[in-house]
């Protein structure tokens, strides 16, 4: 099924390439193997997706009797051999649990059968999926992509979003010409990390020097430019914060550089990369920024989306961040409720917030298992009921201390993990069943709220 054809716009009215809308299933995170990263699979022409356990992560396409199938397997003990099916029916996509041991969940709710939307988060065992019914796909590009193939790229440029991939490919080519590059994106989206990646991709031999514009004097600008002038890169962070005097000096510096054609093998000795939290269209009218300086620094503009707008890359980002702590990375896994929290939080501080949350939670774990209680409260506060608290429960009293809040969160996480099975919870927490019952009574938690619908 071919979607409608569109033209990709980079936010400044520049038509980049033709794109089309294609249904895609994204493997957003494997909770038991977070280093595996994300993957995406085209659902173009697919009638049924069968998901289950296998020896390795694999995808196979079959066609029989007019039925086109996509078979996905994962080496996850939390999955049943055939766990669930996703079916195309009358223009909609439906999830059907196949009698799995651990159940199927949509947006945190246990389901036997459910209609899916592009906003749905699917949890099968400890594997999380996103269905994108009309993902923008660059025409002629690869429709299936395993994030493991991106491992050699800088973390800042690893993405499953086809249009963002094309943007990163373009900026890498531009970097080799020496044309100034402007990075636009909200606070925490990774502008500095992308600047480092661009410097690396530009094959420049000199250093990358960071210049926070809010405190950048004329003298400091000139000193940094001199340091970077032998094949280096100067990163001007938040250019709308530059003082008037520094803007004048920067213009003079830019005017002194030799002009080169984009295709010329000779490139300027100094590459300028600048950034702003403002959108490109808003930066044009920023009151403190000179329009002539903006024009000089905007040789090529790349915009970074918010983390909430690129949840498809959650697995890639989690994998890259965990590898910052290699001594812990290979032992880390996420419980079902902790994984759900990563997809329900809106991440107002973007990738920076995700990095802080992951590294702090991994430090708190025992044996590398990240439970709900290990994540910051700000991340877990938007969990859907009943994962955060059963709707029918009204606590006898709220937890009075941080220790009690952690205890309640661990109990809820384990009840969700084991679908309300108190015996399994007591084994997981290494506590007597009577103690688990006491805790549930203290917080007025009904384990039945976590069991989901009965199998028929």
> How many helix segments?
14
Q: What is the number of independent domains?
A: 3
Largest sheet: 8 strands, antiparallel
Oligomer: single chain
Give the CA-CA distance, first to last residue.
Answer: 35 Å
CATH topology of the largest domain: Rossmann fold
| Name of the CATH homologous superfamily of the largest domain | P-loop containing nucleotide triphosphate hydrolases
Looking at the structure, what is the overall shape? globular
What's the rounded overall pLDDT mean? 86
CATH architecture identity of the largest domain: 3-Layer(aba) Sandwich
Tell me the β content: 25-35%
CATH class descriptor of the largest domain: Alpha Beta
Radius of gyration: 25 Å
Compile the SSE list and pairings.
Elements: E1 5-9, E2 15-30, E3 39-42, E4 48-53, E5 58-64, E6 67-74, E7 84-89, E8 92-97, E9 104-106, E10 109-111, E11 113-116, E12 121-124, E13 127-138, E14 145-146, H1 162-175, E15 181-185, H2 191-201, E16 208-212, H3 218-228, E17 232-237, H4 244-256, E18 270-276, H5 280-283, H6 291-297, E19 300-304, H7 314-322, H8 326-329, E20 333-334, H9 336-344, H10 350-364, E21 369-370, H11 377-380, H12 402-417, H13 422-429, H14 433-442
Parallel strand pairs: 4-6, 15-18, 15-19, 16-17, 17-18, 20-21
Antiparallel strand pairs: 1-2, 2-3, 2-13, 3-14, 4-7, 5-6, 7-8, 8-11, 9-10, 9-12, 12-13
Helix pairs in contact: 7-10, 12-13, 13-14
């Amino acid at each position: 099924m071919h979607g409608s054809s569109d033209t990709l716009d980079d936010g400044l009215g520049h038509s980049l390439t033709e794109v089309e809308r294609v249904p895609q299933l994204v493997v957003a995170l494997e909770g038991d193997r977070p280093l595996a990263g994300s993957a995406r699979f085209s659902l173009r022409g697919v009638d049924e997706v069968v998901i289950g356990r296998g020896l390795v992560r694999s995808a196979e396409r079959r066609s029989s009797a007019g039925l086109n199938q996509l078979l996905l397997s994962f080496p996850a003990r939390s999955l049943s051999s055939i766990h669930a099916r996703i079916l195309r029916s009358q223009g909609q996509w439906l999830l059907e649990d196949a009698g799995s041991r651990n159940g199927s969940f949509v947006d945190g709710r246990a389901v036997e059968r459910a209609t899916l939307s592009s906003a749905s988060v699917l949890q099968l065992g400890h594997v999380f999926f996103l269905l994108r019914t009309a993902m923008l796909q660059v025409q002629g590009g690869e429709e299936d992509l395993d994030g493991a193939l991106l491992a050699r790229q800088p973390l800042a440029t690893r993405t499953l979003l086809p249009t963002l991939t094309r943007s990163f490919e373009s900026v890498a080519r531009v970097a080799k010409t020496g044309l100034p590059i402007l990075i636009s994106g909200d606070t925490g989206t990774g502008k500095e990390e992308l600047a480092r990646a661009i410097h690396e991709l530009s094959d420049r031999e000199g250093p990358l020097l960071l210049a926070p514009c809010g405190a950048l004097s004329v003298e400091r600008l000139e000193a940094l430019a001199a340091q970077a002038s032998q094949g280096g890169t100067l990163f001007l962070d938040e250019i709308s914060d530059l003082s008037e005097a520094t803007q004048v000096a920067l213009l003079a510096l830019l005017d002194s550089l030799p002009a080169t054609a984009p295709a010329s093998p000779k490139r300027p000795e100094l590459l300028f990369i600048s950034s702003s939290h403002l959108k490109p269209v808003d930066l044009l009218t920023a009151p403190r920024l000179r329009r002539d300086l903006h024009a000089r620094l905007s040789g090529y503009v790349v915009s970074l989306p918010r983390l909430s707008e690129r949840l498809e890359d959650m697995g890639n980002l989690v994998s890259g961040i965990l590898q910052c702590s290699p001594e812990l990375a290979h032992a880390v896994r996420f419980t079902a409720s902790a994984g759900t929290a990563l997809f329900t939080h809106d991440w107002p501080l973007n990738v920076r917030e995700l990095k802080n949350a992951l590294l702090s939670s991994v430090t708190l774990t025992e044996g590398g298992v990240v439970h709900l209680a290990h994540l910051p409260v700000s991340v877990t506060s938007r969990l859907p009921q009943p994962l955060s608290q059963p709707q029918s429960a009204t606590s006898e009293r709220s937890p009075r201390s941080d220790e009690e809040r952690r205890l309640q969160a661990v109990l809820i996480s384990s009840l969700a993990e084991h679908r309300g099975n108190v015996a399994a919870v007591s084994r997981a927490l290494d506590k007597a069943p009577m103690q688990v019952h006491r805790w549930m009574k203290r917080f007025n938690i009904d384990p039945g709220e976590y069991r989901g619908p009965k199998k028929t």
